[in-house]
Amino acid sequence: MSLQPVKFYQTGTFTVGNRLLAPEERSVQANMQRTNSLNSGHRACQGCGEALGARYAIDAAMNATNRQLIAANATGCLEVFSTPYPETSWQIPWIHSLFGNAAAVATGIAAAIKVKKQKGQGGDVRVVAQGGDGGTTDIGFGCLSGMFERNDDVLYICYDNGGYMNTGVQRSSATPPAARTATTMPLGPEPGNVFGQGKFVPAIAMAHEIPYVATATVADLRDLEYKVTKAMGIRGARYIHILVPCPLGWGTASHDTIRMARLAKETGIFPVFEAEYGEVKSVLAIRRPLPVEEYLRPQKRYAHLFGKSPAVATIARIQALADKNIRKYRLQARQGGH
Amino acid sequence: MLKQTEGSHAVAEAVALCRPEVICAYPISPQTHIVEGLGEMVKSGDLKDCEFINVESEFAAMSVAIGSSATGARTYTATASQGLLFMVEAVYNASGLGLPIVMTVANRAIGAPINIWNDHSDSLSQRDCGWIQLFAETNQEALDLHIQAFKLAEELSLPVMVCMDGFILTHAYERVDIPTQEQVDAFLPPYEPRQVLDPAEPVSIGAMVGPEAFMEVRYLAHAKQMQALERIPQMAEEFKTVFGRAIGGLTHSYRTDDAETIVIAMGSVLGTIKDVVDEMRDAGEKIGVLGITSFRPFPIAAVAAALKNCKRFVVLEKSLAVGSGGIVATDVRMAVTGMGLKGYTVVAGLGGRAITKKSLHALFAKAGRGELEPVTFLDLDWQVVNRQLERERQTRRSGPAAESMLRDVGTVASKIA
Amino acid sequence: MFQVRIHGRGGQGVVTAAEMLSVAAFDEGRHAQAFPSFGSERMGAPVVAFCRIDDKEIRLREPIMEPDAIIIQDPTLLHQVDVFAGLKKDGFILINTSKTFDQLGLGDFIRDWRHERLCTVPAMDLALKHVGRPVPNVPLLGGFAAVAGVLQLESVIKAIKERFSGKVADGNVAAAREAYAIVKAEMEAAMHGEAHHA
Fold this sequence. Notes:
The structure holds three protein chains of three kinds.
Chain A: H1 15-19, H2 49-64, E1 69-73, H3 77-82, E2 94-96, H4 102-118, E3 126-132, H5 133-138, H6 141-150, E4 155-160, H7 201-207, E5 212-217, H8 221-232, E6 238-243, H9 247-250, H10 257-267, E7 273-276, E8 279-283, H11 292-296, H12 312-328
Parallel strand pairs in A: 1-2, 1-3, 3-4, 4-6, 5-6
Antiparallel strand pairs in A: 5-7, 7-8
Chain B: E1 2-6, H1 7-17, E2 22-25, H2 32-44, E3 51-54, H3 58-70, E4 75-79, H4 81-86, H5 88-97, E5 102-107, H6 121-125, E6 132-135, H7 139-156, E7 160-165, E8 173-177, H8 181-187, E9 204-205, H9 214-243, E10 251-254, E11 261-265, H10 269-282, E12 287-292, E13 294-296, H11 300-307, E14 312-317, H12 328-335, E15 342-347, H13 357-368, E16 375-377, H14 382-394, H15 401-409
Parallel strand pairs in B: 2-3, 2-4, 4-5, 5-7, 6-7, 11-12, 11-14, 14-15, 15-16
Antiparallel strand pairs in B: 1-8, 6-13, 10-12
Helix pairs in contact in B: 1-2, 1-7, 3-5, 8-9, 11-12, 14-15
Chain C: E1 2-9, H1 14-27, E2 31-37, E3 46-54, E4 69-72, E5 92-96, E6 118-121, H2 123-130, H3 137-148, H4 153-163, H5 166-191
Parallel strand pairs in C: 1-4, 4-5, 5-6
Antiparallel strand pairs in C: 1-3, 2-3
């Protein structure tokens, strides 16, 4: 029997793709027996990218580990909306300790599991640590680096919505340049977040030369599931950084979350790739790079760049950053694509 | 088995006998020898089934301990001074979550100015965080208290801090009796958690609690410490049965029965005080000493009972509540409210200043004559202090206070103490 | 209670010496407490360590203000630190040097003291000779066993063997024995009224 490669060009939902695939090739989300680890009833905003990303990621992780998973969660939106006392959305063993220590707590859980297993008192349980960009790139950075450096058997997942959303949309070191936040207002000579700051933690994770680093967005469910599944098949420190649009913080329509994530990827603003031991191994290629304006316009946090006198120079600077990503990560698809 | 060894090493051996499953620590003087000892034991295989993790900060140390303890593993760490402060958010988190972590605090002063020597400001700064706090008088007590600590912590689901004087105890070689593995196993059963992260029975730990229940949750921590007030003396009895030593308990009294003056203190200074008390007793003075072993929970009833018949008490503490006075003294006063006793606070030994028999003799004699101020700073060099205050009155740009005062004090290297 | 204070510089094994004294006392069934006085840790800085020996539990925790014996591992400290502060009348002094007390400028200081209690021993030379390392602390302990008479030489040797192993242990034991002999001879000579000699 000959194999015929089939390419899917998605412009809308995923249902087309799933119907054409054999059951075992469908996404975890398509499966009626999925864990639904982040159960409905949580208090996230309508259209919350993080709620979506967390459910996708943890369901994939549970699927990959035969439901032998423990999660450590940093303080933030996800923790707050998923555990409104006295209820919890989590269907898995889950601990929230502090804002900056999710990675370290996960290290501790992994160590305990290892000892219990050694003593014949426990099975092969795996650990996920998760947090928002604030809890990961800023306050949790020290513990994150420590976990990477020791190569502890933890998958750290960062849900990046570019700001401290839970406390009212303040700037973090993941907030993109020119974006409006409560602490980077669109005022003065350089409105919004300034250029020349910020850190891209996936690159820093790669510098630690850990076994696996990947970026993903909520626009590509299958890619995200694939990466989480792959990560759970690896032992040692792993990092997945997921772009999760926040309708409230970004000022976008709640039904546009997935579309905004796709635009971030298609403009090159958010490079989607995989790396192993510090070297990029694959990218989600961009067939036709879109101008950054298409991504920026729908977001109220960039509204000050548009209007009567658009900030042409600023938009050009953002475009240059996107172009740099495309160049640096070789995101432009060759003929035949990824 | 009797051994002549360094305090830190004795503690490391005791902790190892408790079969810890995860040890995580960040180095800081003067605790380093303890975790180095444990690290060596794990690496050589002498301490089996134990993960030793070199963490990147004290905040990470306590956080790793939280994750590990929540997963059902017996967990240990150690710190001091600046390190304790650096992990404070996690220290509160551990007790709030009810995790039975045991931590050694090798008591050391807190900066600024940076100081590596002994006083009690570090653990006392955390007296309200919910951890049980036990203070060891000797290295024997230090090692034994760790064994009791694991049992107490796990029974009550509350973390325990074992405090031992940095350098004075940690780095002193003295005779200790190290228990056997059989004795420890007879006393300390395997850890049975009240709550645990387990895929077979998923729970969410660490949810937000609002005004509707926070007071009750907080009270529960206090209630557990009230339970500890009962449990600690019982545990000392149980310990004696297995190990043959009277160690632990809430307080120790020495020659207090007919004492007119009772000195109250914690930690290693009790030894020096006892020598002075013996000498003063030989000279006919009716003086005794009350050692507080359990500072949290504070043994109000035991302290009140011990001081019942005395005329006056002197609280000698290696701590200072800046802007207020004594820390231990405040808790003691609460215990003896309404008893009509005369009380004196003596702040001594801050930052490792030696507390000498000579000074104590003079101090206690003064107390006996009723000539002590309400608050005394023992052996404070008033000349140096007043010179600095004058300096600051004269010039705005008076420079770092510590530097100027050290210049007044002269070359430190040429001094013995 | 017998109190010893040891003066030296960082890197000369002052703290180890105090610890070993305490182990030797322990091996004799006595109580002992050894501890250092900490300053900034660096090689060459003045260091003091203390050792108390008694037949009952030692509760005292202050630095040794009135020692019964002083061991000076580095004579360059003599005119820098008040090494003899508090030394009890008729106390014991042992100095690591090949000079005499007179040559060290201490002749006046010790005039009225019992000279068989004031000894010198070239511990550095002995260490180099027997161990090949310039660390004088262990030979000095052999000398101390001789001059103070509060510990047996065999206890010191047992403590050496517990701390060190192999050739280093053998060398240190030999150095300690020789130092013991040298100091014993000095004490004999002093009691017969002759001047100190190395």
